[in-house]
Specification:
Length: about 300
Amino acid sequence: MPKAGIIYNDIKPIACRTAQEIEEKLRAYGWEVCLTTGEGGILGYSQPGKPVCHTPIAQLVPPGFESDMEFAIVLGGDGTVLAAFRQVAPAGIPVLTVNTGHMGFLTEAYLNQLPQALDALLQNDYVVEERAMLAVQVWREEGLIWEALCLNEMVLHREPLTSMCHFEIELGSHAPVDIAADGVILSTPTGSTAYSLSAGGPVITPGVPVLQLVPICPHSLASRALVFADNEPVTIFPANPNPLVMVVDGNAGCAVLPEDRVRILRSSYAARFIRLRPNEFFHVLREKLGWGLPHVAKPTSVELP
């Protein structure tokens, strides 16, 4: 019996209703269906002075979501998609993302396209696109105290955000660099259209094997976004007397003490997106962010009444 999964945002009634409808349809076709919410992929925040509680990356996979699962359907916005990939990427499950939120930059289909999308899934009429993910780790002395999978970006900053920080950063075997800024962003190509874009970083097309480092409001004209190969690990040492806050994909974080170090490397797990049509990245940029829209000239003359 073939098996499919459904991950949905349980605080949105439309996502809950749609999950039930999809489950009933798949079961009618003889499929085994596993359901879970995206809550399991939200890692929560730790506090300075309290024990750091985290779940190892590979243990976030929900029950029943195993490597023999044909596909999973995610119902929600971009936040649910990010949480879902932390749950299923270690099992290598391809995911169809369906937008029930607002922008849905990471989603493949809308609710009104769901019947056609389900038919394509059942007929195996789709391709799988793999996107790079990061393994973000916090080390204290010689012990790993926190880790998470990351599809978009890791952000390290001080609270409040407007306070200047110093970061010593090692990129692979290169000489360390010192950056003075409100914070730093370490982004994948997928995340290049998220926070790093707002902070002045470049857009990177998916599939390019690079990462980018973007300082947030740097206190130097020489500190600008840097793009480098993703086969080199990155280590960040907070050169500050006060704790910092690390946020992964906008919804998970860890307090980073002055003696800690943050290590980021490309994960062996990939986010596997189901594509129902050829993935035209520039079309997505144009539709979601207005990139490349044709310029409309102003009239050369105006007739007064």
